[in-house]
């Protein structure tokens, strides 16, 4: 463990300060990076992206389901245009609905490749997943006991104010 004094506090004290304030948002006293815990509801945008990803995967009959996110492309539903690369799709991993072939920031041929999981396909066929998850430093730290189906999630609109106040 690193010992020492950072801006008048030890690393341990800095870590404790962050943990106390992470739910409301704070800055790391060591590096000034914003730190916040977010409650992410499974919403209609995420669910639409999952539906599209599943359709493309099935239609193209891709070996083991891996596809680069750019290959999923744009899609239209009920006359409205959507883009799978709006980054909401990536939050589906916190619900176990999709998985990535690598870590963010990797520079490998498989970077940016995703696939729908069996849980994702079950969810689209009527299965249930947590209604929300809490995310901290890009890791799921909690999930709701209450669950939703895809049909129910399609009725949940993204709410920026709720996200920022969670």
Mean pLDDT, as a whole number? 80
Oligomer: single chain
Radius of gyration: 19 Å
**How far apart are the termini?**
31 Å
Q: pLDDT under 50 segments (min length 5)?
A: 1-5
**Per the principal axes of the C-alpha atoms, what is the gross shape?**
globular
* Helical proportion, percent range: 25-40%
Class by alpha and beta content: alpha+beta
Order of helices and strands: EEHEEEHEHEEEEHEEEEHH
Give the count of helical stretches.
6
- Count of separate structural domains: 1
Strand content: 25-35%
Largest sheet: 3 strands, antiparallel
How many runs of DSSP E, i.e. beta strands? Answer: 14
Q: Order of strands side by side in the largest beta sheet? A: 5-12-13
Report on this structure.
This protein is an alpha+beta fold and 166 residues long. The protein has one domain (38-165). Helix content is 30%, strand content 27%. The chain has helices at 11-21, 44-60, 69-72, 118-124, 150-153, 160-165; strands at residues 5-6, 9-10, 26-27, 34-35, 37-41, 67-68, 74-77, 80-83, 98-100, 113-116, 129-130, 132-136, 139-143, 147-148. The strands form 6 sheets. The protein has a 3-stranded antiparallel beta sheet. Strands 6-10-9 form a 3-stranded antiparallel beta sheet. A two-stranded antiparallel sheet has the order 1-2. The longest helix has 17 residues, at 44-60. The protein starts with a strand and ends with a helix. Mean pLDDT is 80; it is low at 1-5.
């Amino acid at each position: 463990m690193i010992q020492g004094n950072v801006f008048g506090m030890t690393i341990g004290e800095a870590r404790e300060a962050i943990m106390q304030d992470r739910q409301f948002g704070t800055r790391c006293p060591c590096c000034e990076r914003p730190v916040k815990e977010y409650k992410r509801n499974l919403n209609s945008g995420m669910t639409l992206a999952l539906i599209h990803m599943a359709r493309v995967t099935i239609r193209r009959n891709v070996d083991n389901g891996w596809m680069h996110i750019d290959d999923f492309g744009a899609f239209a539903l009920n006359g409205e245009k959507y883009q799978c690369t709006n980054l909401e799709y990536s939050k589906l991993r916190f619900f176990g609905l999709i998985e990535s072939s690598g870590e963010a920031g990797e520079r490998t041929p498989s970077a940016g490749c995703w696939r729908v999981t069996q849980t994702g396909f079950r969810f689209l066929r009527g299965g249930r997943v947590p209604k929300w998850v809490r995310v901290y430093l890009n890791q799921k730290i909690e999930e709701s006991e209450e669950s939703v189906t895809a049909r129910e999630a399609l009725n949940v609109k993204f709410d920026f104010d709720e996200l920022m106040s969670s």
